[in-house]
Amino acid sequence: MSPIKWQDIKFVRFLLTGGINTIATYCLYLALLNLLPYIWSYSISYVSGIFLAFFLNRFFVFKEHQGLKTVLLLPMIYVAQYAIGVLIVWLWVMTLELPEFLAPLAATLILIPFTYVLSKLIFVKPKTLSP
Fold first, then answer.
1. How far is 71 from 119, CA to CA, in rounded Å?
2. pTM
3. Separation between Cα atoms, residue 25 and residue 45, nearest integer Å
4. S-S: 88 plus which of 97, 107, 113, 123, CB 3.0-4.6 Å?
5. Which compartments is it annotated to reside in (predicted)?
């Protein structure tokens, strides 16, 4: 049996904190869905999730950051994820005619690998090779 790699532990923590973030933002989405159209509900809950993701990734998942680079690049990752997520949500509801309340969960599941890889790139300092 091979020992668990540090990278595997980070990914598990990423999944756990992602689950917490998903539950929190999904509850917000459902609450807003009673008041607003699904795209607005998704957008507001998504922006809230960006702030929560920063703190969870910074202090629990990667436990490091690259200073201003991390602060500036994380929103860009989430803007890209948001654009793809809105497309997934729209396709889910309008093309596939599936329930609105499940749309953000589908978008989240589809985008997990994309988000993990890019988040790791901006939070974890590259290892330098010793001469």
1. 11
2. 0.67
3. 5
4. 107
5. Membrane
